[in-house]
Design brief:
The chain is α+β, with helices and mostly antiparallel strands. It has 3 domains: about 1-90, no CATH class; about 95-215 and about 310-350, D-Maltodextrin-Binding Protein, domain 2 (3-Layer(aba) Sandwich); about 220-310, Periplasmic binding protein-like II (D-Maltodextrin-Binding Protein, domain 2, 3-Layer(aba) Sandwich). It has 10 helices and 20 strands. The chain has helices at about 95-115, 125-130, 155-170, 185-190, 205, 250-255, 270-275, 285-295, 320-335, 340-350; strands spanning about 20-25, 50-55, 55-60, 75-80, 80-85, 135-140, 140-145, 145-150, 155, 170-175, 195, 210, 215-220, 220-225, 240-245, 260-265, 280-285, 300-305, 310-315, 315-320. A 5-stranded mixed β-sheet has the order 10-6-11-20-12. It has a 5-stranded mixed β-sheet with strand order 16-15-17-14-18, sandwiched between helices. Strand 15, helix 6 and strand 16 (about 260-265) form a beta-alpha-beta unit. Bound molecules: arginine (ARG). Arginine binds near residues 146, 197 and 248.
Length: about 350
């Protein structure tokens, strides 16, 4: 591969006539049509490894392919051919592209030095992960749009993001699905490398795991039957409230609601069902999952408008696994900055909620 050809980058507003993404970490929403061949939406930080340019296309106004200097000016067509990433980001975009990669390399170098001095650990180093050929993600796949089972597979915004991390490491992603209350212990005992489970970074958990940068600003919503007289969090006092066990909803119902009868379920899907079938007077669930449950209830359920908490959603690695955390953070921060996280959440909301 000619070196120059590695300089191509793509923006969401591609003006390509026909372009084929031969290999990319995750399929993006079909928000943008690129003509006959491709209908995926490639965002800059998805760092597609192989891009096939099937027809000529133009740089400039709409901005498509920035080739080395001579091709980056307005109106100059990029030649056909096959291009290999890395796909650098435009300048000035936070931790994107080249900057991201350099920062990452530097960080990894420092971490590698540091880890030479460490004597024991309960997690796999980046080297061990790479040698094994897989990154192991722990989750509880009952939590649309973050993670859920579709066609026998665990999918969702978290698997997509974890796939991007695995891609960055050059390994496959393996997902291990378990009850939510087992995740932290499983990570601590080395059953996986990373928790990606729409998990709230809270101080109690932070004593046991290391949290990544925040990738979703979250909170808890209250779900009630349509027409319920429960109108605020305070009205939950003394009511039957369903939650997923060991989640922040469980904490809230147990510690903040006076005299509630807390119904705990292993499975977040059962939390909404309990209200639908009259076993609970209300449910407490994270914002996006709650919106999905209500959207799919055929008008039988409603949301109280204001979240009762504000929470930060993060991924988690084993305590001290700074090498892996640096990679996770770089991928997540870039994905937040360029809208990929939002787009993935929307993609999985669309996939899991009924058409109106
Ligand atoms: N954000 C809440 C918590 O961390 C709920 C997460 C539930 N996630 C799941 N995959 N079931 O406690």
């Amino acid at each position: 591969m000619h070196k120059k050809e590695k300089q191509i980058w793509l923006r969401p507003n591609l003006s390509a006539e026909r372009i084929q993404i031969v290999e990319a970490p995750v399929p993006m929403p079909k928000g943008r049509r690129l003509g006959g061949v491709v209908q995926i939406w490639l965002r800059p930080n998805l760092s597609a490894k192989r891009i096939q340019i099937v027809e000529r296309m133009f740089c400039g106004v709409k901005g498509f392919a920035r080739r080395p200097a001579e091709h980056s000016r307005r109106g100059i067509a990029s030649p056909r051919g096959q291009y290999e990433a890395p796909v650098p980001m435009p300048k000035g975009k936070g931790l994107g592209g080249v900057v991201q990669r350099c920062a990452l390399l530097l960080l990894c170098g420092v971490m590698a030095l540091l880890s030479l001095t460490a004597c024991s650990k309960d997690f796999r180093s980046l080297d061990e992960i790479k040698k094994s050929g897989e990154l192991i993600m722990l989750t509880n796949a009952t939590f649309e749009p973050f993670e859920y089972v579709s066609g026998g597979e665990v999918v969702g915004a978290d698997p997509d993001l974890a796939q991007m991390i695995a891609y960055e490491l050059g390994v496959e992603l393996r997902i291990v699905d378990m009850d939510f209350d087992l995740l932290v212990e499983a990570l601590k005992s080395g059953k996986g490398d990373l928790i990606a489970a729409g998990m709230t970074a809270n101080p109690e958990r932070a004593e046991q795991v290391d949290f990544s940068s925040v990738y979703v600003k979250n909170g808890l919503l209250i779900i009630v039957p349509a027409g319920s007289d429960i109108q605020t969090g305070a009205d939950l006092a003394g009511k039957r409230v369903s939650v997923q066990e060991a989640t922040t909803s469980d904490d809230f119902a147990t510690n903040e609601v006076e005299g509630a009868e807390v119904l705990r379920f292993k499975d977040a899907v059962a939390v909404g069902d309990a209200v639908q079938n009259g076993k609970a007077d209300a449910a407490i669930l994270d914002i996006k999952p709650a919106e999905g449950v209500v959207a799919n209830s055929g008008g039988r359920l409603a949301l109280l408008p204001d979240p009762v908490t504000q929470e930060d959603t993060s991924m988690a690695v084993a305590k001290g696994n700074a090498e892996l955390l640096a990679v996770v953070n770089a991928v997540l921060e870039a994905a937040v900055a360029d809208g990929t996280v939002d787009a993935l959440i929307q993609k999985h909301m669309d996939a899991t909620t009924l058409e109106e």
